[in-house]
Amino acid sequence: MRIIFSTLIFITGMLNTMSQDRSIPLYQGNPPGNKTQDTEETWTTSASGSAIVTNVTVPELWFFDSKCKQPAPAIIICPGGGYQYQAYEHEGKQVAKWLSQLGYQAFVLKYRLPDELLFDQATTIPLTDALQAIASIRKNASQLGVDSTKVGIMGFSAGGHLAASASNLFKLDLPLGSVTGNARPDFSILMYPVISMSDDLTHQGSREALLGKQPDEKQIDLFSLEKQVTPETPPAFILHAQDDGSVPVENTKQYAEALRKANVPVQEIILPRGGHGFGFRKESPAFEWTRHLEKWLKNL
């Protein structure tokens, strides 16, 4: 038992460093909405060996510095996990390291999950953190080597829903108070995203975790991002696999169509195979997404 406990401590320490250049707290003092400061976040590994985290109460950005000599675009990465956990390995750290090697200032966002036991106004807690991250990076752009006119957000699965929420709800009157500074992302990258909360399109686990078991129609509509697109929504790269058995590909198709109707530039890519949750797994038939995204980013 003592050996197992020691191993868990070692794994936790290893997962919390994850090779980032540094960690940047989102808030000074107790984050808005926290009911307690005593909860310890929990790091474990999934069945596939990826690092996952739950019980986050101290949100932060993990910075992967490109070491560029000139200000570079910033990309904030929101790992997925159905708003129940966050997949920090193949949908976070690995992606950030790759983007930093391409010359982008990459940040993995460790955001708070919508847990009513831990937070007031739990539904808007993840969005509050995402908008705060955008505003903070833009405010501190010179210190971070960031081009303040090119601060984007990227998300996988439910993290894609969070990124799309930030792309459309950046003017929302948040119940815990407004975010200080410009929180509108300049572009978004959405990977096999949950977009809609409607019965026929949503990922039920993500919807229940975010909105509860019996959400009202107003909440469903607000967080169905295909209904929230305006000409102010930033340009998007959006990718999905046709054979995704968890999040219907129609989420991507309807969001892309809404962007086109609003005259918002969009690159929509539907791959024939890949399923769900492939992230940065090089063995996946969908790993070609990296080539498509690299090409799109060059035209920012």
Entry summary:
It contains nine helices and eleven strands. The protein has 300 residues and is α/β, with parallel strands linked by helices. It has a single domain, classed as 3-Layer(aba) Sandwich (Rossmann fold), CATH 3.40.50.
Task: Characterise this structure.
The chain has 300 residues and is an alpha/beta fold. Helix content is 31%, strand content 20%. The chain has helices spanning 2-17, 89-101, 125-139, 141-144, 158-168, 204-211, 217-222, 250-261, 289-297, and strands at residues 22-25, 42-45, 51-54, 60-64, 72-78, 86-87, 105-110, 146-156, 187-191, 236-241, 266-271. The strands form two sheets. The chain has an eight-stranded mixed β-sheet with strand order 1-4-7-5-8-9-10-11, sandwiched between helices. Helix 3 packs across helix 5. The protein is globular and about 45 Å long.
Q: Mind sketching the topology for me?
A:
Elements: H1 2-17, E1 22-25, E2 42-45, E3 51-54, E4 60-64, E5 72-78, E6 86-87, H2 89-101, E7 105-110, H3 125-139, H4 141-144, E8 146-156, H5 158-168, E9 187-191, H6 204-211, H7 217-222, E10 236-241, H8 250-261, E11 266-271, H9 289-297
Parallel strand pairs: 5-7, 5-8, 8-9, 9-10, 10-11
Antiparallel strand pairs: 1-4, 2-3, 3-6, 4-7
Proportion of residues in extended strands:
15-25%
The number of helical segments is: 9
The CATH architecture is 3-Layer(aba) Sandwich
Termini separation comes to: 53 Å
Number of domains: 1
Quaternary state of this entry equals single chain
What is the fourth-level CATH superfamily? Alpha/Beta hydrolase fold, catalytic domain
Total beta strand runs: 11
**Rg for CA atoms:** 18 Å
Keywords: Hydrolase
InterPro entries: AB_hydrolase_fold, BD-FAE-like_dom, GDXG_lipolytic_enzyme
GO molecular function: hydrolase activity
Protein name: Acetyl esterase/lipase
